[in-house]
């Protein structure tokens, strides 16, 4: 039976179709999910895609966090449902307290859009198992509110527990503390990152790289082996 990966669309989401396509290319059945619908339609994993949900009013992800679909996502994520938050999705995960810390405006106060090199710091999560520890990958980055911050105690805990999933290489693009590009929860089923793996899944589209496909093949292998 084909694993089902749901992708949530909020008002202002931009990259939901890209994420659905990435799931299909990896071999999953992509399932569109609507922000007003609490029903996750029996998906095996959820992606919160990038964009500017609700126009980033108040704070990026602050309103989306209270959408009906998030009630179910939060409940099931705590019970082990794999959830990947990409860019705005990462912001929503921090607002929902599924991941610690917060996202602030880039330190240089400009929108950044570029191909970004990352180092995989944790290859044991549901979304990173197809990578090798320490592997360097390159995927697109595009954000205005991408600066990850947390208090020193939280940062130390993330480091000590191996919960920094990705770190920026070749310069910090947004001022994120300790060059953190993505983190995971303690269980490894919830991962958030600012760069966009769904834009690097086939050689003829985007940057021409396929390093992002590993996120989606990782979760498929996790689901099959569960």
From TrEMBL:
Gene that encodes it: purQ
Protein function: Part of the phosphoribosylformylglycinamidine synthase complex involved in the purines biosynthetic pathway. Catalyzes the ATP-dependent conversion of formylglycinamide ribonucleotide (FGAR) and glutamine to yield formylglycinamidine ribonucleotide (FGAM) and glutamate. The FGAM synthase complex is composed of three subunits. PurQ produces an ammonia molecule by converting glutamine to glutamate. PurL transfers the ammonia molecule to FGAR to form FGAM in an ATP-dependent manner.
Reaction catalyzed: L-glutamine + H2O = L-glutamate + NH4(+); N(2)-formyl-N(1)-(5-phospho-beta-D-ribosyl)glycinamide + L-glutamine + ATP + H2O = 2-formamido-N(1)-(5-O-phospho-beta-D-ribosyl)acetamidine + L-glutamate + ADP + phosphate + H(+)
Active site: 87 (nucleophile), 196, 198
Keywords on record: ATP-binding, Cytoplasm, Glutamine amidotransferase, Hydrolase, Ligase, Nucleotide-binding, Purine biosynthesis
Subunit structure, as described in the record: Part of the FGAM synthase complex composed of 1 PurL, 1 PurQ and 2 PurS subunits.
NCBIfam families according to UniProt: FGAM_synth_I, PRK03619.1
Organism name: Streptomyces lichenis
Cell compartment(s), UniProt: Cytoplasm
InterPro entries xrefs: Class_I_gatase-like (IPR029062), PRibForGlyAmidine_synth_PurQ (IPR010075)
Enzyme Commission code: 6.3.5.3, 3.5.1.2
Recorded coiled-coil stretches: none
Biological or metabolic pathway of the protein: Purine metabolism; IMP biosynthesis via de novo pathway; 5-amino-1-(5-phospho-D-ribosyl)imidazole from N(2)-formyl-N(1)-(5-phospho-D-ribosyl)glycinamide: step 1/2
SMART domains: GATase_5
A Pfam family reported for this protein in Swiss-Prot or TrEMBL: GATase_5
Protein name: Phosphoribosylformylglycinamidine synthase subunit PurQ
Source taxon at top rank: Bacteria
């Amino acid at each position: 039976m084909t694993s089902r990966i749901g992708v949530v669309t909020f008002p202002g989401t931009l990259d939901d179709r890209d994420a659905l396509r990435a799931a299909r290319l990896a071999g999953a059945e992509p399932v569109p999910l609507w922000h007003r619908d609490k029903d996750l339609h029996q998906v095996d994993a959820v992606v919160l895609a990038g964009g500017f949900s609700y126009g980033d009013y108040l704070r990026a992800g602050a309103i989306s966090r209270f959408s009906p679909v998030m009630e179910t996502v939060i409940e099931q994520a705590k019970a082990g449902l794999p959830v990947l938050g990409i860019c705005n999705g990462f912001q929503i995960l921090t607002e929902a307290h599924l991941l610690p810390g917060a996202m602030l405006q880039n330190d240089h106060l400009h929108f950044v859009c570029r191909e970004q090199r990352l180092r995989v710091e944790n290859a044991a999560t549901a979304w990173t198992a197809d990578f090798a520890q320490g592997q360097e990958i390159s995927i697109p980055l595009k954000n205005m509110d991408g600066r990850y911050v947390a208090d020193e105690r939280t940062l130390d805990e993330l480091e000590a527990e191996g919960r920094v999933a990705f770190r920026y290489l070749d310069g910090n693009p947004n001022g994120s503390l300790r060059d953190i590009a993505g983190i995971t929860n303690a269980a490894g089923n919830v991962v958030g990152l600012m760069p966009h793996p769904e834009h690097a899944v086939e050689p003829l589209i985007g940057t021409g790289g396929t390093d992002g496909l590993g996120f989606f093949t990782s979760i498929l292998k996790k689901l099959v082996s569960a």
